[in-house]
Design goal:
Length: 467
């Protein structure tokens, strides 16, 4: 006999948590985290999980929809985990993201005097990504209605995105609004090509099958790069597919393929074979141009990346004679952007390939005052590093979501740079690090920047001044 369903009736949804779940409270103060709801909704909730102090669940019945609700524009909205805030107006998305940053600074950084500047919204709010990775699977994600219908032959191969919480089931995407329309045309053509040529899709559990992944990149300069990733080393089939794709889409300026027989999908430890076109695509931010290869790291929203870097430049307030450290520099895009306004800049990054890209783009733009080192920031950044490159006047730090390593924070406290500009994709870990640095630094202001509309993700730039 199954457990009785737990329904909590007539709940008011009052806010959004830091990971995008809606938040509701009952009369006793119990907190509920709700999937697929927006603030202002009145709902009956089906509780799925109970933990100490809170419960999580889904909407059992929408009693009264919020005035903040909007009609999702994507037909895959209810299944896909990519743009979960399409049902919330964009102005309200921005307001909640700004509140998220403000709450992190006040509660975690414990900095009540920091100025939180109005969030910088994105333009455009669709077709803004310059990179998408699609997956092939022998198992298409089925809706509840399809499962209940028990129709024969529903389980077909799929090409699209993994369903949230699954590793082997893929939503068969027909139209995605994240990248420009050519991305949809290329993906849908390859689906038709696979059917026509009777080429198999990858079985994620068995690790067999021909088509495995598809990576499509584009730039604001009109370049398009495609990497067809296969699970079988069938050169004749690979060449035939690439030749057909090249003939169908002359807009593709760089075409590659990769053979991946590993257990995981990452290609950074594999050879990427250049089939035709240029060996890279070009992007431009401000006056700088960047070569982007099939393994290059680059901000996935080129339009908003320039605005983000402009804010970093503004916060750094360089006069031309400063020594700048750029921690977690990636491909050096921020460092190169700043190099025109300082005496010297030195970037540190763990990924060697990213440093190679940074050096190449430095040469491309004829920049001679930027230096790049490969290595873990916590190991490279020390007093010996300072003796080699000079004491920093400004430190730029743009760490991954986990924030800075504790040893990096301790070294920054030793170095005592007059100014730190902290760029973050996670307001919570940024606020944690600001609190750790508060021994010697005051957080003067924070600028939230929306890089990813219709998601809960938010970038935040903080200016820390030495006390």
């Amino acid at each position: 006999m199954g457990r009785k369903k737990r329904i909590v009736e007539n709940l008011n949804v009052v806010g959004i948590a830091d990971k995008g779940m809606a938040v509701a409270r009952d009369n006793e103060g119990m907190v509920y985290f709700v999937k697929d709801s927006v603030p202002g909704d009145v709902i009956d909730l089906l509780v799925l999980r109970k933990k100490k102090g809170f419960k999580t669940g889904i909407v059992h019945r929408l009693i009264k929809p919020s005035p903040k609700r909007t009609e999702p524009f994507c037909s895959h909205f209810e299944l896909c985990g990519g743009c979960k805030w399409q049902n919330l107006s964009y102005l309200d998305q921005l307001a909640f993201k700004e509140d998220n940053v403000k709450a992190a600074i006040q509660r975690i950084a414990k900095s009540t005097e920091t100025e939180i500047l109005p969030i910088l919204g994105a333009t455009p709010i669709t077709h803004y990504r310059n990179k998408l990775e699609y997956s092939f699977s022998t198992k298409r994600w089925l809706t509840d209605a399809e499962i209940k219908s028990k129709e024969v032959g529903l389980q077909k191969p799929a090409l699209g995105f993994h369903a949230p919480g699954t590793y082997d089931k893929v939503i068969d995407v027909t139209k995605c609004y994240l990248q420009e329309e050519l991305s949809n045309e290329i993906r849908n053509w390859i689906r038709e090509y696979a059917i026509k040529e009777e080429l198999s899709y990858f079985d994620i559990q068995a690790k067999t099958g021909f088509f495995r992944n598809l990576i499509i990149r584009n730039s604001t300069l009109g370049d398009w790069m495609v990497n067809v990733i296969v699970g079988e080393n069938e050169k004749e089939k690979i060449e035939a597919c690439c030749n057909a794709l090249e003939a169908k889409f002359p807009q593709v300026s760089s075409l590659f393929y990769t053979i991946n027989k590993k257990a995981n999908d990452t290609i950074y430890d594999l050879d990427v074979f250049h089939h035709s076109g240029k060996a890279f695509m070009m992007e431009q931010l401000g006056s700088l141009k960047f070569k982007i290869g099939p393994k290059s790291f680059f901000q996935t929203n080129s339009h908003q990346a320039k605005n983000l870097y402009d804010i970093a430049v503004d916060f750094a307030d360089l006069k031309g004679n400063e020594v700048v450290y750029d921690l977690y520099t990636g491909t050096g895009s921020i460092a190169l952007y700043l190099s025109q306004k300082c005496k010297s800049v030195v970037g540190i990054e763990t990924v060697t390939e990213a440093i190679d890209d940074a050096k190449e783009n430095s040469s491309l733009n004829k920049i001679e005052n930027a230096h790049f080192l490969a290595g873990d920031v916590k190991d490279v950044l020390n007093l010996k590093f300072r003796d080699t490159y000079g004491s920093p006047d400004v430190v730029i730090t743009d760490p991954p979501r986990a924030g800075m390593h504790k040893e990096v924070v301790e070294t920054l406290l030793q170095l005592e740079a007059p100014k730190i500009v902290y760029v973050s994709c996670n307001p919570a870990t940024q606020a944690r690090d600001i609190h750790l640095l508060s021994e010697k630094y005051f957080c003067e202001k924070v600028q939230p920047v929306d890089m990813f509309p219709h998601t809960s993700h938010i970038e935040s730039v903080a200016l820390l001044i030495k006390k």
